[in-house]
What we know:
Layout: E1 12-13, E2 19-20, E3 22-26, H1 55-67, E4 72-76, H2 86-94, E5 101-106, H3 111-121, E6 125-129, H4 135-142, H5 147-159, E7 163-170, H6 179-189, E8 192-197, H7 205-211, H8 215-223, E9 235-238, E10 251-253
Residues 31, 33-35, 38-39, 77-79, 107, 129 line the site of iron/sulfur cluster.
Amino acid sequence: MDEPKKDTENVLLDGCGRVIDYLRISVTDRCNFRCFYCMPGSGVGFIPARHILRYEEMLRIADVFIEMGIRKIRITGGEPLVRKNILFLFRELGKRGALSELAFTTNGAGLQEHAGPLKQAGVNRVNVSLDSLDPKTFERITGLDCHARVVRGIAASREHGLKVKLNVVALKGVNDTEFADFVKFGVDKGVDIRFIEVMPQVYNTRIAGDLFISSDMVREKIQKVYSLTPIRGEFSTLRSRTLQAPPCNREDAV
Ligand code: SF4
């Protein structure tokens, strides 16, 4: 294993002088869900396989960035767990001793069976996209009846020692009565919660505006039920649309 770098020569800085030590690698644009605000049920134009990097190429890129000071890598998609032999990539990245954090983002459908092997591979964090605690609303959003499976995957991740954060896209008229429930869920289950403003994407430019709720509105709804003082666990909001200018960390947490 590589020794963590101690020198400060190879440090990436952004235009505001902040250290960049975090790299996200998207391994696929495929997903086994069809969240209505993300992609339609049919007619999605996926990237041809020949244009998607092989694992060996991703590892080469990761090593270059590690040499430049990257210490945290997150694997994303689409849904990373639908890519064939994805554990190979996690196991190889897990051997990079210079990394202080190896994480991934998932819709949670494959988490129950993957949580143990991923932990063994060196993963220490997982973000799970979960937009509703109600199975029917979940199915309405994702097109799939597998809410219980995702919840079991979250529990399995905790049992295997992974730190879990839930990503909740705030959707007006869909899950906007559940924000306080999510906060309680986070406290009860020992997971962090992050609310995200819905963003216009290729397939949702027409509906994104109708669904939009700002981070401030999410906060207001929660404050009607809870006072926002430090608690066991964490919730935060990601201002993907309403925060415009640097310097910022794009994330408010209490
Ligand atoms: S799980 Fe994520 S990538 Fe998959 S359809 Fe839903 S929002 Fe899109």
